[in-house]
Amino acid sequence: xxxxxxxxxxxTQGMAIIIVITLMLGLVISVFHQGSAAVLGPQETKYKxxxxxxxxxxxxxAITKQGVYEKEINLxxxxxxxxxxxxxxxxxxxxxxxxxxxxxxxxxxxxxxxxADLNHRISLATKxxxxxxxxxxxxxxPSGKNTGAETFYHFQSEPGxxxxxxxxxxxxxxxxxxxxxAKPGEFYLIKNSPMPAVIxxxxxxxxxxEFAKLQQxxxxxxxxxxVAKGVANYFGLP
Length: 238
Prior knowledge:
The structure is a single chain. By secondary structure, this protein is of the alpha/beta class. The chain has seven helices and six strands; from the N terminus they run αβαβαββαβαβαα. The chain has helices at about 10-40, 70-85, 110-125, 160-170, 190, 210-215, 215-235; strands spanning about 45-55, 90-95, 130-140, 150-155, 185, 195-205. A six-stranded mixed β-sheet has the order 2-1-3-6-4-5, with helices on both faces. Helix 4 links the parallel strand 4 (about 150-155) and strand 5. The radius of gyration is 27 Å and the shape is globular.
């Protein structure tokens, strides 16, 4: 026995049309959303930055009377800055993510060890095809009176100067910060890096008041935001 054929009435036809329109509308919205996500997501132009947490391993950097090592704060700051720059479409590489150095076994002498360590960090940035190398440090003086952040570039690098200036312009906006300007320097890392490179001295660990702030997460966040904003400005990112 043949099954009866149902001929759609006006109501059934209307429901079918609504369903088809709904499906088509959903498809259009889906395609539009995917296209928008591609535009509004991470930047199409991927800049590459290497963040170097200064010192590490055998080299503690400056040491406070309380036994706090500069290398520890440098690493914490590198991690904080990385978290801020990643979402901006900048690919971040850290030269170290733990307390290590890059001195080959058998190398002796303070100068030789330091140069070997820095050469490895420069090599990491070169292999990463970095658009910029930023080395993070803390300053120290015997008197303990100096305060404030400073950014250094090599005098022969115009891009390095621009990078240093954009970072320093943001650092001086941190409440209570000295209004220093970016300065040229002859430091080994910025002198021998093939890409624009700067050294950012985030403060004076030898100054008791500034050292107390440098240990605080809220102040570390302020410094990290300033450096990240400076880097973003250098690349013309919002």
